[in-house]
Design goal:
The complex is a heterodimer.
Chain A: H1 2-15, H2 35-40, E1 53-59, H3 64-76, E2 79-85, H4 90-99, H5 104-110, E3 113-117, H6 118-126, H7 149-160, E4 172-179, H8 182-186, H9 191-208, E5 212-219, H10 231-241, E6 244-249, E7 261-267, E8 275-284, E9 287-291
Parallel strand pairs in A: 1-5, 1-6, 2-3, 2-4, 4-5
Antiparallel strand pairs in A: 6-7, 7-8, 8-9
Helix pairs in contact in A: 1-6, 7-9, 9-10
Chain B: H1 5-11, E1 17-23, H2 30-42, E2 46-51, H3 56-60, E3 71-75, H4 96-104, E4 112-117, H5 119-123, H6 128-141, E5 146-149, E6 151-152, H7 158-167, E7 170-177, E8 182-190, E9 196-205, E10 211-214, H8 222-228, H9 245-253, H10 262-269
Parallel strand pairs in B: 1-5, 1-6, 1-7, 2-3, 2-4, 4-5
Antiparallel strand pairs in B: 7-8, 8-9, 9-10
Helix pairs in contact in B: 4-6, 6-7
Keywords (chain A): Cytoplasm, Nucleus, Signal, tRNA processing
Family (chain A): Belongs to the ELP6 family.
Organism (chain A): Astyanax mexicanus
Chain lengths: 300, 299
């Protein structure tokens, strides 16, 4: 019951968060909101690597700007996107995406975007309301149900019909974005069950369908012990499986107005292809800028 | 040629041996696993892989093409838990009997090598004690000559890692060095006589799955170039940080404020011009006692 109230409260907060008034997008909207990041990763909506498992993580910082980046990136690339929104409402992403030049509502109507609004659907599941057909996806809320099989099946159903039903629209490779995995740990799902779920997602979406998968794991500094049910463990296990890892951290020297933190980008490969680079970043109204450490415009 | 324990062990597999490459997320032990598989194929041995972590094409690539028919991949990657109802090998089927049966199904059944990728995956679904028991049964069973299992050390508690390593005759722990351009392998090999050999070597796995071993990371490797090139911090700036000769001389002449030099000492000892003296005349109300006021305290 208590959990139920928390969900409802969070949802209320979302709707009354004040955003700057957004002017309607004009005829020429800048298409690159994260130009430096695209250049660092050598990718663009027209040209990106397929079959990638991108792991986003943060520690004492907020990596959600990367989630917004990838959501708009893949929608612009005309991919079919399945978005598991476990921590925020649809309107939250919609408002931010509008500022980045992408209309989520339109994408949803066209069938390009499948959005799981877990917050909205959760009270129904917890209160035992069997009407919604999406309840199988949220089976993990019903204990004892340790596996995320229902959630996986939701993802599979959303992305496996790529191009089949809508003959007019042929979308690109399927993409799964999860925001975020750590909240599942808080909801009582074991780390092993989460890893089984990500395994199946990777095996079907990345390997079989040659699509991409992006997952966010949020870590806490207090969990530095050997606990096998912590976000740190999840992060380590997923690092073994991912092809690209972006780790966001606050600056070790503390809060800075002009530099919001640093990102370690780790291309996992063999020999020379295995590279780790650190960049600092600043999030602003319409994106984020990335620069080499110490070269922020505020510092030079 | 320097003796390389690592190379010797991987190239000539002893009977009834269990190898365990252990890695962390900073460097994947899978390349070493592939090298192990390749060596076995070159020795014309049947290799059976229980593949949980990576798909078949990723393991098959770069393997010796001559004996590819000896490579048997048991697909536990696509559907290890039966969720899609199209599983080839599930994690539930991990047992000595099932594996022995799988191996015996191949026609050659000569010396068979079992490769497990990875034991960490299985450990999420099976009791570690049960895993050790099954591995032990396989070791003694006779159908399998060599077992090679990949283990991700950073995902388990130390006790579990040690139990599995205890079962193995050879444990190869790999860690990244120099941003994973090289890796360090700590090999511990326990011979049948009980003698334990240990060695630390540095290696890289090249594109064609050839292993290059060095006793210490080469001094002239790519990674060294970055540390040798001196970066001049005063270059490429919009303002000038350098000193001209005149400025440098003037800088060196400046007397630092808190350095106690001879001039300062004589200045202090000299009596001043009399401008800073304090003259006090105690009046009738002052109790001007020359003695120490704290004298009566018993400290």
């Amino acid at each position: 019951m208590i959990i139920c109230i928390v969900f409802l409260l969070t949802q209320d907060l979302q709707s009354c968060t004040s955003f700057h008034t957004v002017p309607p997008p004009g005829p020429c909207v800048r298409s690159e909101m994260f130009p430096e990041l695209n250049s660092i990763l050598s990718s663009s909506p027209e040209n990106f690597t397929e079959g990638e498992f991108i792991l986003l993580s943060d520690r004492q910082a907020d990596a959600s700007f990367l989630i917004h980046h990838y959501l708009t990136f893949y929608l612009r690339a005309r991919c079919r996107v399945c978005f598991l929104g476990l921590v925020q409402s649809f309107s939250h992403y919609s408002v931010v995406s509008q500022r980045l030049g992408v209309n989520l509502t339109q994408a949803k109507e066209k069938g390009q975007l499948v959005f799981l609004e877990a917050l909205k659907a959760s009270p129904g599941v917890l209160l035992g309301d069997e009407s919604s057909d999406k309840t199988a996806a949220l089976d993990y809320l019903r204990s004892p149900c340790p596996e995320l099989r229902g959630l996986y099946e939701f993802v599979w159903n959303s992305l496996s019909r790529a191009g089949g039903e809508d003959a007019a629209e042929s979308w690109g490779p399927p993409v799964l974005i999860i925001d975020d995995l750590s909240v599942l740990l808080s909801l009582g799902v074991s780390a092993g069950a989460i890893l089984d779920f990500t395994h199946y997602c990777q095996a079907t979406i990345c390997s079989q369908l040659q699509g991409s998968m992006i997952a966010l794991v949020r870590c806490d500094d207090e969990e530095y012990d050997e606990d096998e049910e912590s976000s740190n463990y999840l992060l380590k296990a997923l690092s073994h499986q991912c092809s690209l890892s972006l780790r966001v951290e606050g600056l070790s020297t503390g809060y800075c107005r002009d530099i919001h933190g640093q990102v370690e980008i780790w291309w996992r490969g063999r020999g020379i292809k295995n590279q780790r680079k650190i960049f600092q970043y600043k999030v602003h109204d319409k994106g984020a800028s990335f620069f080499a450490p110490g070269t922020s415009r505020a510092v030079l | 040629h320097l003796f390389s324990l690592l190379l010797t062990l991987l190239k000539t597999a002893d009977l009834n041996c269990v190898y365990s490459p252990s890695d962390t997320s900073s460097y994947s032990g899978r390349d070493l696993l592939k090298y192990c598989i390749n060596c076995a194929l070159k020795r014309e041995e049947d290799v059976h892989v229980l593949g949980f972590e990576v798909p078949e094409q990723e393991l098959r690539s770069e393997l010796d093409s001559n004996n590819k028919h000896l490579f048997h991949f048991h697909n536990a990657y696509s559907d290890p838990l039966g969720w899609r109802k199209q599983s080839s090998f599930t994690v539930e089927q991990f047992s000595a009997e099932n594996i022995t049966r799988l191996v015996r199904e191949t026609k050659h059944a000569k010396a068979s090598v079992l490769v497990i990728d990875s034991l960490s995956w299985i450990e999420r679904h099976h009791n570690p004690v049960a895993i050790c028991q099954q591995l032990h049964k396989l070791k003694k069973g006779g159908a399998i000559r060599t077992i090679c299992c990949l283990l991700h050390m950073d995902l388990h508690q130390q006790g579990i890692v040690e139990s599995i390593c205890h079962l193995a005759n050879t444990v190869i722990t790999v860690t990244a060095v120099n941003n994973a351009l090289y890796a360090e392998a700590k090999t511990t090999h326990r011979k049948k006589s009980g003698k334990v050999m240990q060695e630390e070597e540095f290696f890289t796995v090249m594109e064609n799955l050839s292993l290059s071993i060095e006793k210490r990371p080469s001094q002239s490797g790519h990674a060294q170039v970055h540390s040798d090139a001196k970066v001049d911090p005063a270059s490429n700036l919009t303002f000038n940080l350098r000193l001209s000769e005149v400025e440098r001389e003037a800088k060196e002449k400046v007397a630092l404020p808190f350095v106690f030099s001879q001039e300062k000492k004589s200045a202090l000892l000299k009596k001043g011009q009399g401008s800073g003296r304090i003259i006090y005349e105690p009046d009738a109300n002052d109790d001007f006692d020359e003695e120490d006021p704290d004298d009566d305290l018993d400290i």
